């Protein structure tokens, strides 16, 4: 039993300190959430950071690249890279705007194409849908960090890794001794 | 950038236009340690009774190498415009602009415009 006691990372930590560590852990989670929510407000986009999942925008973006999105400034114009969602499909798509038609009421008809694809996206849209409207677009790509998103792709492909990582982090935070 | 040719053609009862351009520019100075690629595109912009803004990309090109950044293209056209039955393409005034955006290795993406000209689609098929 002595041996087990030594293994237990919580052994010898006073109870109040364990409580403090739990609060610390909560603080970390809350701060992460705060940063995300703050980014949502600053960018005006429901998901301000996305990871590229396919190579359809090669050589500009590749799998695992991290994109910062913004929704704030001005109307949609050709040449911009936008992230959009199609009804009935979960995964958002990052492609470039090839055609824009805007009427007097500010309603849009937008056509997109992947830089690495030979034809435009009409086949990619929902059945009977010829254009994207403003409601389909999550954000326009403003900033770019290479490869960082690979971490999330790996964790998505191997979910066990995610739980392991969270578990190890939690144990680490909770069992840190203040000296 | 200057105009080369504007065509009005008819296919399956709809009007289409092909705008052909000559483009000469040197984009070598845009390449530095943090430049991954340039995306060059030529846009045709026009106004129709239903729409206040219409923009169609009629040509594009990706440049990833500094040695390829001296552009000297003659007679270029990649995408047609037209095919919308609500629009009368005959005599339609077009504003043609050359733009590019710079994709960095990491950081912000920027867009720039360089050069433009105005032109009209001819009134008859040619």
UniProtKB/TrEMBL annotation, chain A:
The keyword Isomerase does not apply. It catalyses: Cleavage of hydrophobic, N-terminal signal or leader sequences from secreted and periplasmic proteins. It is a single-pass type II membrane protein. It is found in: Endoplasmic reticulum membrane. Its EC number is 3.4.21.89. The chain crosses the membrane at residues 21-39. It holds the Pfam family Peptidase_S24. One of its GO terms (molecular function) is signal peptidase activity. NCBIfam families: sigpep_I_arch (TIGR02228). Catalytic component of the signal peptidase complex (SPC) which catalyzes the cleavage of N-terminal signal sequences from nascent proteins as they are translocated into the lumen of the endoplasmic reticulum. Specifically cleaves N-terminal signal peptides that contain a hydrophobic alpha-helix (h-region) shorter than 18-20 amino acids. Belongs to the peptidase S26B family. This is Signal peptidase complex catalytic subunit SEC11. It comes from Cavenderia fasciculata. The gene is sec11.
TrEMBL record, chain B:
The keyword Transmembrane helix applies. It is a single-pass type II membrane protein. It comes from the Eukaryota. Keywords: Endoplasmic reticulum, Membrane, Signal-anchor, Transmembrane, Transmembrane helix. One of its GO terms (biological process) is protein targeting to ER. Its main location: endoplasmic reticulum. GO terms for cellular component: signal peptidase complex. It is found in: Endoplasmic reticulum membrane. Belongs to the SPCS3 family. This is Signal peptidase complex subunit 3.
